[in-house]
Amino acid sequence: MAINFNNALGVHEQAVNLRIQRAEVLANNLANADTPGFKARDIDFRAALGAAEAQSQGLAMTRTDDQHIDTAAAMSERAALMYRNPHQPSLDGNTVDAQQEQARFMRNAMDFQASFQFLNSKFTGLSKAITGE
Questions:
Q1: Membrane-crossing residues (predicted)?
Q2: What is the pLDDT of residues 67-108, one digit of tens each?
Q3: Which DSSP string do the residues of 49-61 spell out, in sequence order?
Q4: Which H or E run includes 41?
Q5: Domain range spanning residue 35?
Q6: 2 located within any domain
Q7: What is the DSSP annotation of 66-91?
Q8: Are 95 and 38 within 8 A, CB to CB?
Q9: How far apart are the C-alpha atoms of 59 and 73, rounded to whole Å?
Q10: Sign of the C-alpha dihedral, residues 28, 116, 107, 6?
Q11: For tag attachment on the chain, is the N or C end more exposed, with fewer CB atoms within 10 Å?
Q12: What is the three-class DSSP state of 128?
């Protein structure tokens, strides 16, 4: 009997990939905290994960006409980046709040670690099941 990794791992594989993408975006925001005119960006994690989960389960929207918008292509390469509305924008047009970005980055890192540990325990369980332990 073949192992279906989509069923075995669930949505956690996509969650780890989205956490990695979000870490890159948040790190970019922090790196440009002093760049005039830089606009802070972020990923809507829930929407991106919902789209990834629907796509993996075959629930994604399908195109019935070539003139329809391809929603799968929009989320396939990278999660949709959105601009963040600043609480207090700076005079030079920069919308990065370094303290909030650091808090978001650390929260994302903790969530990544939790998803990664869950995946690790899944793989450990699968390897034990394969070897008969």
A1: none
A2: 766 655 554 445 678 998 888 878 999 999 999 999 999 999
A3: HHHHHHHHTT-S-
A4: strand 41-43
A5: 9-128
A6: no
A7: TTS--HHHHHHSSPPEEEPPPSS--T
A8: yes
A9: 15
A10: positive
A11: N
A12: helix
